[in-house]
Amino acid sequence: MNKLYKKYIKTESLPTLFCPGCGNGIIQIAAMEAMEALDCKDDVACVSGIGCSSWIPCYYKLDVIHTMHGRALPFAEGLKLARPDKKIMVFTGDGDCLAIGGNHLLHAAARNIDLTVVMVNNSIYGMTGGQKSPTTPVGARTKTSPFGCIDEPINACSMVMAMGATYVARWTTAHPVQLAKAIEGGLQHRGFSFIEVISQCPVQAGKSIWGEKDPAKIMARFKENTYLYKGDMSDVTGSMAKENAEGKLPLGLFKCDDSAPEYIARVEAALAAGGVGR
């Protein structure tokens, strides 16, 4: 068995609930590799919401709060305020984070609170039967868009940057090494870190979006349909905001601002001064 599995995974809980070919296992290992690289396992606590990806941290030998649908971020913010010494890692999905939890995402990014959010984006509600999500591509026929999705998908990275997130990256499950490095960078960054992971759901998105249920073939398309973004990382209105001219999605580290004040530091400064404005 993989040495990291013995160290990080509750093997008595295996096998996982993930469907065969799901990208969650890749993401789970990438996060383990990030923690191992920083030797910070004992300093990390995890929070998740509801959905397939929210089960990722539940198999870790860590303190984990598995919360309500869409409420992972407010729980995580409360935990960070109570235990500012902890590195808080949040695992959430595109539906959990951008739909019912969308308002919480806006405020957490604006506060620049020190959390590392890993948003797994499979472009569909996988666990509940294949309904369209906030990131479902236009034209996709799902359980709730039988005539084809007409809503423009939300670009989560552009949105959180516009709201004030200070560390923003995007990778896919076909880029596990880069993903692990991005999570490592997010854990090191003092501020709101947001890492989007484009992931395969062979069961639901396979039939509704990709027309292909072979996870290896879907991951090959991830590589074909993406490119490494090398533009102005602060640009949220140009080519970063949407796909490039060839219709490919940008990947990489889009923003890393270590100069912005972090929320917990501001709270502590206000308490030390006897209150804001005094």
Mind sketching the topology for me?
Elements: H1 3-8, H2 24-38, E1 44-48, E2 63-66, H3 72-82, E3 87-93, H4 94-100, H5 102-111, E4 116-121, E5 124-125, E6 131-132, H6 156-163, E7 167-172, H7 176-188, E8 193-198, H8 205-210, H9 215-224, E9 226-228, E10 249-256, H10 263-272
Parallel strand pairs: 1-2, 1-3, 3-4, 4-8, 7-8, 9-10
Antiparallel strand pairs: 5-6, 7-10
Helix pairs in contact: 2-7, 4-5, 5-6
Describe this structure in a few short sentences.
By secondary structure, the chain is α/β, with parallel strands linked by helices.
Structure description:
This protein is of the alpha/beta class. It has helices at 3-8, 24-38, 72-82, 94-100, 102-111, 156-163, 176-188, 205-210, 215-224, 263-272; strands spanning 44-48, 63-66, 87-93, 116-121, 124-125, 131-132, 167-172, 193-198, 226-228, 249-256. The strands form 2 sheets. It has an 8-stranded mixed sheet with strand order 2-1-3-4-8-7-10-9, sandwiched between helices. The chain is globular and about 60 Å long. The relative contact order is 0.14.
Structural class: alpha/beta
Order of helices and strands: HHEEHEHHEEEHEHEHHEEH
Q: Helical amount among residues, as a percent range?
A: 25-40%
Shape type? globular
The whole-angstrom Rg is 18 Å
Question: Could you give the count of β-strands?
Answer: 10
The helix count comes to 10
Largest sheet report: 8 strands, mixed
Q: Average pLDDT across residues?
A: 92
Q: How far apart lie the N and C ends? A: 58 Å
Strand order of the largest sheet: 2-1-3-4-8-7-10-9
Q: Beta-sheet strand percentage? A: 15-25%
Q: Which consecutive residue ranges, at least 5 long each, have pLDDT under 50?
A: 236-241
